[in-house]
Automatic annotation (TrEMBL):
GO terms for biological process: cellulose catabolic process. It comes from Kitasatospora cheerisanensis KCTC 2395. The keyword Hydrolase applies. It comes from the Bacteria. This is Beta-glucosidase.
Length: 442
């Protein structure tokens, strides 16, 4: 089991959350509506009819949550800032009460000795921007950069590093291509412009942040892609999926070009979204770090129908989380080596910005402890191989609103009773606390 000897002394330990999943207070203090507010209002969109209207009530209970983090002995806390809380319609004047909340949170974290690591966009686009086309429209990228400037103007003197986007791949596929997340569109491959516009928004925002002397990261869900067999058809299908899931969002940032998407019948302009000079705007600011969200590998076979050039196949013979996701710790080791092999010196330092699991255990969550321990072992082996990984932020501090799954999936080190808002640390909380303390004792 991973202990204090396996990672460098300056390795950073953290936890992650996201605004819509924990804050609640959706109608308070001038916050505008987000796409998730409207999506949750759709009958059948979210299991059990759950919503983030109250969630963990973190907006009011943040001091208690900061104390839980202090108790863990964390180095950092990755959270997200709700765009509609800062700019209710996604453009124009700032909502002072919204920024005041994040200022209180940042100051509380600093007082507790915890470095804030904010994410500017974790899927909660202001509904007013979505009404105008959302990320399908180029204009949204410029609105995002304006919003980033407003937040950095207030908090940049205390927050040294920023994540622009969280999991743009998942937001594109689940939100715009398949319709199972907000904003709920089913555009299939016609959703590809949202990839470019998110990356353009990243580039424009990153330029503003770096001009202030701030560090910039982006966080994406990455997965090792494995063909279901050694057949040429399965290998080609795996390559096509790899390009879409992993390289569509990293190649422009690190290589200055989009990967080959000809398997999808898509050219380099992504259905006309890419304009001259855009890749310079995306690549130009550079990255100070790459956030990697890792949960599991993906097994791919040749297409079962002509709709897409791949079929997802199950990974058998491994444990499954309560969510049904396969538990493959070695996949993290494999992924980190794949990133280094593909990008070489262009690969910035890595931070694991999400890693965790859902389990139905109440407080004695031995499944989660084993999950975290084995993934940290895989991570430590990659670090021993010379891969520059600076920190690990487990998902998540609290049980929370798990998007379309509602409150049915529990990822927290801390159990939350959503009727009473009582927080109760699980066994994994104590395990993580003790792990951090052993590491600090070096």
């Amino acid at each position: 089991m991973t202990d204090r000897h396996d990672l460098p002394p300056d390795f950073r330990w953290g936890v992650s959350t996201a605004a819509y999943q924990i804050e609640g207070a959706v109608d308070e203090d001038g916050r505008g509506r987000s796409v998730w507010d409207d999506f949750c209002d759709r009958p059948g969109a979210v299991k059990g009819g759950d919503t983030g209207r109250v969630a963990c009530d973190h907006y009011h209970r943040w001091p208690e949550d900061v104390e839980l983090m202090r108790g863990l002995g964390l180095d950092g806390y990755r959270f997200s800032i709700a765009w509609p809380r800062v700019q209710p319609t996604g453009r124009g004047a700032v909502n002072g009460a919204g920024l005041d909340f994040y200022e209180r949170l940042v100051d509380g974290l600093l007082e507790a000795g915890i470095t804030p690591l904010p994410t500017l966009f974790h899927w909660d686009l202001p509904q007013a921007l979505e009404d105008g086309g959302g990320w399908m429209q180029r204009e949204t990228a410029f609105r995002f950069a304006e919003y980033a400037d407003l937040v950095a103007d207030r908090l940049g003197d205390r927050v040294p590093a920023w994540i622009t986007l969280n999991e743009p791949f998942v937001h594109m596929v689940f939100g715009y291509a398949l319709g199972i997340h907000a904003p709920g569109h089913s555009l299939m491959l016609d959703a590809l412009p949202t990839a470019h516009h998110q990356l353009l928004g990243h580039g424009l925002a990153a330029a503003g942040l770096r001009s202030r002397g701030l560090d910039v990261l982006i966080a994406n869900n990455l997965t090792p892609v494995r063909p279901a067999s050694d057949s040429a058809e399965d290998r080609a299908a795996a390559d096509a999926y790899d390009a879409l899931h992993n390289w569509l969002f990293l190649d422009p940032l690190l290589l200055g070009r989009y990967p080959d998407l000809s398997a999808y019948g898509v050219g380099e302009d992504l259905h006309g979204a890419v304009r001259e000079g855009d890749l310079d705007l995306i690549t130009g600011p550079g990255l100070d770090g790459l956030g990697v969200n890792y949960y599991n590998p993906t097994r791919i076979a040749a297409p079962a129908d002509p709709g897409l050039p791949f079929t997802q196949a199950p990974i058998e013979g491994v444990p499954l989380t309560h969510f049904g996701w396969p538990v493959v710790p070695d996949g993290l080791h494999e992924l980190l080596h794949t990133l280094r092999a593909r990008y070489g010196d262009a690969l910035p330092p890595i931070t694991i910005t999400e890693s965790g699991c859902s389990t139905d255990e109440t407080l004695d969550d031995t499944f989660r402890i084993d999950y975290l321990a084995t993934h940290l072992d895989a991570l430590a082996r990659a670090v021993a191989d010379g891969i520059d990984v600076r920190g690990y932020y487990t998902w998540s501090l609290l049980d929370n609103f798990e998007w379309a799954e509602g409150f049915g999936e529990r990822f927290g080190l801390v159990h939350v009773d959503f009727d009473t808002q009582q927080r109760t640390p699980r066994a994994s909380y104590a395990w993580y606390r003790d792990l951090i303390a052993r590491h600090r004792a070096l």
